[in-house]
Specification:
- The strands form two sheets. A five-stranded mixed beta sheet has the order 3-4-5-6-7, sandwiched between helices. Strands 1-2 form a two-stranded antiparallel sheet.
- The protein has three domains: 105 residues, Helix-hairpin-Helix base-excision DNA repair enzymes (C-terminal) (Endonuclease Iii, domain 2); 162 residues, no CATH class; 102 residues, Trna Endonuclease, Chain: A, domain 1, CATH 3.40.1350.10.
- By secondary structure, it is α/β, with parallel strands linked by helices.
Length: 406
């Protein structure tokens, strides 16, 4: 693994650990996990249902609230999702009457840009056909994977088998049909069922290294800007994107779906690059397209910043064994480099008040320290004041520890 790939993997791994919990609330994975059915067969079909309707709908604003309302409704009535699969009249009634809360107020029943309740009844009928033929969705997938597991891309065959089975049982327009499409919804579903937390981890019989990237226009934009990877929105593009992710993590390439997809979900990597919020992007230090602020050419620039650092040392000095100020990083210098007795190393920016520029500065210092000296340090901003929202965003998105000293 070359130096650039190693650093990118390290940044993505750190971001994954911070974001895997936060991701649940901004993904359809939230409603998928909320459904607490005891039967694995029930949860399998619920996850596939959620994956197949997850397109052309704003997730956080509409799709998630609707699915959460649906889950609460069927659980409140003591129903299982399998009950709806085997009773079309019950399914139609429930899908028409359940209540949920949208940003514009209370709503009733299922709504979608391209799917109607009749289309969902067709999909549930296809689920019933699979259940009658194989006993469960897991049984069908397990037999298909066993058939394809020795092929170069086993999941390619499994996805085609599942697509064909759903269409043969009359799955309707909710089932992707184009044979050269990205099949994003299927790849998303298999990641949910195979990977461990925050995914469901129900199918241990599939090796994670065989999972494929959930490629869409948003992920395409992110990998193109961040890594210079030009892929098209087709099946070949899926294989190329997955091939790159396997360079970062051969055993678990789709682990990074969380981080990379979040950049678009949160609006950090906007379609118009000029509108992007690069300073809050978790991978700004490895992104080829971002333009973080240029580091200043001197270290502690004012007496106020010097006093802030002195105060920090007075409070936390016992935890430290080495402190370097104005630490050189090529033509630039970080305000400080701190080594703690716990063997943790921090590259530091000192500011009167936490701000967006400081976040970009310390992210750049972290990258320069690795690029020039081959050392991986944690980023820290020491300041007198920090607004709670920005402090939280700095930690969650960038892993930046913000320390306020009075």
């Amino acid at each position: 693994m070359n130096s650039e790939i190693f650093y990118a993997a390290r940044v993505l791994d750190e971001a994954y650990e911070r974001l895997k919990d936060a991701y649940i609330s901004t993904s359809v994975l939230g409603p998928v996990r909320l459904y607490s059915a005891a039967e694995t067969a029930d949860r399998e079909f619920w996850a596939l249902f959620c994956a197949l309707i997850d397109y052309q709908m704003p997730v956080a604003r509409l799709l998630n609230p609707m699915l959460l309302g649906f889950v609460r409704h069927i659980e409140g009535r003591g129903l299982k999702f399998l009950d709806l699969i085997y009773d079309a009249k019950l399914a139609e009634k429930v899908l028409s009457e359940f209540e949920w809360s949208s940003p514009k107020g209370p709503r009733e029943g299922f709504t979608h840009r391209f799917l109607r309740i009749r289309d969902l009844i067709d999909l549930l009928a296809a689920f019933r056909g699979i259940c009658d033929s194989y006993g469960s969705l897991g049984s069908f997938v397990k037999s298909s994977y066993a058939l394809h597991c020795h092929e170069p891309e086993p999941m390619e065959g499994v996805i085609r088998d599942l697509q064909r089975e759903l269409l043969n049982h009359g799955g309707g327009i909710a089932v992707p049909r184009h044979t050269d499409s990205c099949m994003k919804r299927f790849n998303l579903f298999f990641r949910w069922l195979v990977r461990p937390y925050p995914d469901l981890g129900l199918w241990g019989f599939i090796d994670r290294k065989h999972l494929l990237a959930s490629l869409d226009a948003n992920l395409q934009r992110v990998v193109s800007r961040a890594f210079g990877l030009k892929v098209k929105l087709n099946w070949r593009g899926v294989l190329e994107a997955t091939g790159f992710l396997r360079k970062l993590n051969p055993d678990d390439p789709t682990k990074y779906d969380y981080v990379l997809s979040r950049l678009s979900i949160m609006g950090y990597c906007a379609k118009d690059l000029a509108r992007s919020k690069c300073l809050l992007c978790p991978i700004v230090s490895v992104c080829k397209a971002s333009e973080p602020p240029r580091p200043v050419e001197v270290g502690l620039r004012t007496e106020a910043e010097t006093e802030i650092l002195k105060r920090y040392l007075e409070i936390y000095g016992r935890e430290l064994d080495r402190v370097y100020t104005e630490y050189p990083l090529g033509r630039f210098s970080a305000d400080a480099l701190i080594h703690k007795t716990s063997c943790s190393e921090y590259v530091v920016e000192v500011e009167e008040e936490l701000n967006y520029t400081a976040i970009g500065q310390v992210a750049t210092y972290r990258y320069l320290l690795y690029k020039i000296h081959g050392r991986l340090a944690k980023p820290m901003i020491i300041c007198r004041r920090a607004k709670s929202e920005l402090k939280e965003a700095a930690w969650i998105e960038q892993g930046i520890e913000v320390v306020e000293v009075q």
